[in-house]
């Protein structure tokens, strides 16, 4: 029974993906749209092969993973503690929520000119843009999670005389861990989405740059092949992060 | 194996370390991966003692930039030039302001706008002559710009010479400035927008015009030279600090570009072959631009004259794109142009 279930878990998405590819192929095969508007799956596959053989794809993947990971680690490293702290201090939360929300709504595209002026060219401006996109949603969701912990937890904690660090590690942190994992997954998603915009900024490699470059080179087939790689890698990274939900001290948040 | 938080953190750190190592190759002796990756050809660099990065966009108006890069690596030069490809002009402006590149190719009125805004840059040389066309849909019957009244035409930027020239042509044909609806579009999107019917025509530098012709969706209404003989769209812009601090490098650069231009003029098919991997574009499109007719683009007579730029400035001020008259002596610097221009001795067998 269990094996059958895991088989269909694998099979159903596969059927959907193959169906999607088939529709794409047929649209191109019967020339429902002209070739310059939508390259065929075959063209995309050929250009993926070309990029792999030229060694560009591996280099671009590494560059993008590096920028996204650093941007994400920075925003998680600063955003999680900051969110926890804000969640526990009602006055600061009141004071800072509007400005945090303000920055949350600014598209990373708007920061591009400043990113170049302040951080010049290369990895730094891209990491800055990813950070700006991922940090604020992370802080806000963690802050909200902490603020909505039932007050009974803290009343009990007071009975046990938990204060400061102890309160944080024994009550607050475990209570919001499931939400932290979710916030991290959502932020990572944002960081990965922003890569195309972030690598517009005077980068010389990376998957997002690959798309811009393909566009400039009038090669839409290459652009599609890069889109496929970005989607697949994003999926893989999310699968990895979702493994966190299987941690024993977090599982309770998901076993309902 | 049971997953714990500790193991997860260790796993994340290992991942970070591996990616970091792959990214920066600390074991390789010097330079970043980025630099190496973009080097199409690694020549002997004979006795080059110094190097300079020069910015460009993958358009034929900037063709001499990759040719100079290649030439500096395959022939005897004092300076090694590394061409850095950008994908849009606003980024080039920011990079020049931040002095991340100190020499770059750029559309002429934008360079004048930068000068007006107080960024100390000078125009030291031209990138090309001609090299732009007004393209309309293949089935459009228009014979002159007058027939395009009420239609939509795309331009690459407000600060491009195409914008000035097309307004001059409208004036010459007795049209009003609002007879044509102008939109700003990124050049790579122009051929597809035209094919999809979103715009009725566009005026931009090559190879974005040739692309529509080769797709069978567009045709040339005007060559730039028909409207404005010896048309200029892009120029070599150099930061004044570089001129002051390393005049010998600027001299090498201008000489290199002049010689590359002469070489491209004499070896058009080879120039298309050389530039294709730098531009990462289809060689056929570049080949078409360079070899179908010599009237499309030219790389001779690249000395910027006062008359050329006075004309551009007057038009731009009249249209309200620029605000103040800048004396030509402040804008142009012709000191580095060599007297005798010979074609760069690029070994043809080394072109990849």
Show the helix and strand layout.
The complex is a heterodimer of chains A (256) and B (352).
Chain A: H1 2-29, H2 41-53, H3 56-88, H4 90-104, H5 108-119, H6 123-147, H7 151-159, H8 164-198, H9 207-216, H10 220-242
Chain B: H1 5-24, H2 33-37, E1 50-56, H3 64-74, E2 79-85, H4 89-97, E3 103-107, H5 108-116, E4 121-126, E5 129-130, E6 132-137, E7 152-155, H6 161-172, E8 181-184, H7 190-196, E9 201-205, H8 208-215, E10 218-223, H9 224-227, E11 234-239, H10 240-245, H11 247-266, H12 268-279, H13 283-291, E12 297-298, H14 306-319, H15 328-331
Parallel strand pairs in B: 1-2, 1-3, 7-8, 7-9
Antiparallel strand pairs in B: 3-11, 4-11, 5-12, 6-9, 6-10
Write up what this structure looks like.
The complex is a heterodimer of chains A (256) and B (352). Helix content of chain A is 79%, strand content 0%. With 256 residues, chain A is mostly helical. Chain A folds into 2 domains: 1-36; 39-253, MetI-like fold (Orthogonal Bundle). The radius of gyration of chain A is 22 Å and the shape is globular. Chain B has 352 residues and is α/β, with parallel strands linked by helices. Helix content of chain B is 43%, strand content 17%. Chain B has 15 helices and 12 strands. In chain B, the strands form 3 sheets. In chain B, strands 2-1-3-11-4 form a 5-stranded mixed β-sheet, sandwiched between helices. A 5-stranded mixed β-sheet of chain B has the order 8-7-9-6-10, with helices on both faces. The longest helix of chain B has 20 residues, at 5-24. Chain B is globular. Residues 30-46 of chain B have low confidence and may be disordered. Classes of the chains: A mainly alpha (256), B alpha/beta (352). The A-B interface holds A 34, 36-37, 55-56, 59, 62-63, 65-66, 69-70, 73, 112-113, 116-117, 120-122, 200-202, 204-205, 209, 212-219, 243-244, 246-249 and B 2-5, 8, 12, 15-16, 19-20, 22-23, 33-34, 37-38, 57-58, 84-88, 90-91, 94-95, 97-98, 100, 186, 188-189, 191-192, 195-196, 207-208, 211, 215, 217, 279-282, 285.
